[in-house]
Amino acid sequence: MDQIGFILLLVVVMGGMMWWQSKKAKEQQKKVKDFRSNLQPGTEVITIGQIIGTVVSVDEQYEEVVIDSEGSKLRVGFNAISREYVRPAYVSDDEVDENGNPLPKDDQDGQNAEAEYGEAQVNVEESLAANNAETAGAAETEKEAK
Hints:
single chain; alpha+beta; five-stranded antiparallel sheet; 3 helices; transport
C-alpha cells in the first residue's frame, strides 16, 4: 500500500510541475505576442541576429517589419524581433576603481582614498620608476657576474 501511495505522490508532483511549466511558457508566449503586435514605427528593437535598428513600418497582414539600421533598411518577419533595445549604461573608467567598484561621489579624482578605504592608493609613475630601477640594477649585476 505504501508503494501505491508513493507512486501516486510522484504522479501528482510530476503533473504539478508539468502544469506550472506550461503556464509559464504560455505567459511568456503571450508577452512576446503582445510586444510584436504592438510594434510601432520609431521603436528601437534588436533582432535574433543581434541587428539593432528602428522600426520604420509594420505590416500585420504578412507579419513583416521594416527596420532601419544606420541607413540600411531590412525587412524581417515578426519572429525575427527579439525584444525592444535598451542601450546599456556606460560607465567611464574614471568613475570606477581598479576592481570595477564605483568611486564615492565626493571622491571622483581619487583624493582622500586612504581615509575612505583604509588603504593607500598606488602612484603608478613612482611604482614604474622603482620597478625600472630595480630591473636596471639586476641587469647590471648580471653583466658584472659574467
